Amino acid sequence: MSNFIFNFLNNCTPPCRCVLCAASCKNSALCPDCLSHLPYLTQALCPQCALPAHDGCLCAACLNHPPAFDFSFAAFTYTPPITQLIIAAKFSGHWSLLPTLGQLLLDQVSAAPRPHFIIPLPLHPKRLKERGYNQAFELAKPITRQLQLDLRPDLLERRINTEHQARLSQAERHKNMQKAFYTRHNLDGKHVVLIDDVMTSGSSLHAAAACLKKAGAARVDNWVLARAI
User: Fold this and answer.
1) Could you tell me the pTM of the whole model?
2) Residue 136 · residue 161 · CB < 8 Å
3) Residues in domain Phosphoribosyltransferase (predicted)?
């Protein structure tokens, strides 16, 4: 499946055909049938970390060790074909997928409480230069445009070029993210939303939220495209 997506994108400029099945489609990288079969998160989830939880109550982990963020909203489970779509957009230069993926996230968070600001989880400048774009920023664009919210990438900086989280254990992820983020702004009493593509252990989002809370933010939510379950 992943090779098909990569090869297809290398020979096609969307929107024209679905990147999953090659069916004709307009104004989207995915056809209606493939959209309907994506791994949407439908089970009861912990409202704070978006992991499965009985009756949608706070899970034991969040009760015993509360993260710095307050709520998490996720559109999909991090399983195929969402995994391949994110990898293609994030690591293979196919950023043209990101507006469609951002719209899919918007569809799932449109009823969520509106924040004062939306902040895409930042990349370190070195990694941003290597990749050429921040996938979280590209995901956030259609959301802020349609919800008429302030997109503020300037409110949070990544000052440590951390090792790729995918290579690390959960304990290593937490250690890896210590002091990774910085803000010079006063966010006293503000409600902010962090946007990212994937939430795995939540270490990056926890570190970012802790930084924003230290700057005075009253509430920090996560809006993520996919959640590792």
Assistant:
1) 0.88
2) no
3) 137-226
